[in-house]
Amino acid sequence: MDGPFGSDLKVSHQTESGVRILQINNIGVGKFLDKNAKYVSEEKYNELIRHSAFPGDLIIAKMGSQ
After folding, report:
1. Other C-beta atoms within 10 Å of 10: how many?
2. What's the pLDDT tens digit per position in 10-50?
3. Please, which residues have CB within 8 angstroms of residue 39's CB and are 6 or more apart in sequence?
4. Please, are residues 22 and 45 in contact by the beta-carbon 8 Å criterion?
5. Taking the alpha carbons of 56, 3, 24, 44 in that order, is the dihedral positive or negative?
6. Is 49 strand, coil or helix?
Protein backbone atom coordinates (compact mmCIF):
# COMPACT_ATOMS: atom_id res chain seq x y z
CA MET A 1 0.00 0.00 0.00
CA ASP A 2 1.19 3.49 -0.74
CA GLY A 3 -0.28 6.93 -1.38
CA PRO A 4 -2.51 8.09 -2.87
CA PHE A 5 -0.69 11.28 -3.69
CA GLY A 6 -1.42 14.70 -5.14
CA SER A 7 -4.63 15.11 -7.05
CA ASP A 8 -5.65 11.44 -6.57
CA LEU A 9 -7.30 12.29 -3.25
CA LYS A 10 -8.44 15.85 -2.54
CA VAL A 11 -10.49 17.30 0.30
CA SER A 12 -13.31 17.69 -2.22
CA HIS A 13 -13.45 13.87 -2.51
CA GLN A 14 -14.31 13.47 1.18
CA THR A 15 -17.83 12.44 2.15
CA GLU A 16 -19.83 12.21 5.40
CA SER A 17 -19.75 8.40 5.27
CA GLY A 18 -18.44 5.60 3.10
CA VAL A 19 -14.94 4.06 3.09
CA ARG A 20 -12.60 5.27 5.83
CA ILE A 21 -9.47 7.20 4.83
CA LEU A 22 -6.31 6.49 6.83
CA GLN A 23 -4.29 9.62 7.47
CA ILE A 24 -0.89 10.26 9.02
CA ASN A 25 -2.60 11.47 12.22
CA ASN A 26 -4.19 8.00 12.58
CA ILE A 27 -0.77 6.35 12.94
CA GLY A 28 0.61 6.14 16.47
CA VAL A 29 3.58 4.31 17.93
CA GLY A 30 2.46 0.70 17.64
CA LYS A 31 -1.22 1.53 17.41
CA PHE A 32 -4.00 2.97 15.26
CA LEU A 33 -5.34 6.30 16.52
CA ASP A 34 -9.08 6.33 15.82
CA LYS A 35 -9.67 10.08 15.57
CA ASN A 36 -10.69 12.64 12.96
CA ALA A 37 -12.46 10.07 10.79
CA LYS A 38 -12.75 11.02 7.12
CA TYR A 39 -14.39 9.05 4.32
CA VAL A 40 -14.68 8.73 0.53
CA SER A 41 -17.51 7.32 -1.54
CA GLU A 42 -17.47 3.68 -2.72
CA GLU A 43 -16.94 5.01 -6.24
CA LYS A 44 -13.81 6.97 -5.26
CA TYR A 45 -12.56 4.02 -3.22
CA ASN A 46 -12.84 1.79 -6.28
CA GLU A 47 -10.66 4.26 -8.21
CA LEU A 48 -8.02 4.03 -5.45
CA ILE A 49 -8.43 0.35 -4.56
CA ARG A 50 -4.72 -0.43 -4.99
CA HIS A 51 -4.08 1.78 -1.93
CA SER A 52 -6.31 -0.32 0.35
CA ALA A 53 -5.28 -1.37 3.86
CA PHE A 54 -6.72 -4.38 5.68
CA PRO A 55 -6.80 -5.60 9.30
CA GLY A 56 -3.40 -7.01 10.20
CA ASP A 57 -1.51 -4.82 7.70
CA LEU A 58 1.59 -3.04 8.96
CA ILE A 59 1.35 0.71 8.33
CA ILE A 60 4.47 2.86 8.45
CA ALA A 61 4.45 6.66 8.32
CA LYS A 62 7.47 8.15 6.62
CA MET A 63 8.28 11.85 6.95
CA GLY A 64 11.05 13.77 5.21
CA SER A 65 13.91 15.15 7.30
CA GLN A 66 13.97 18.86 8.08
Report:
1. 10
2. 899 999 999 999 988 888 888 889 999 999 999 999 999 99
3. 14, 15, 16, 17, 18, 19, 20, 21
4. no
5. negative
6. helix
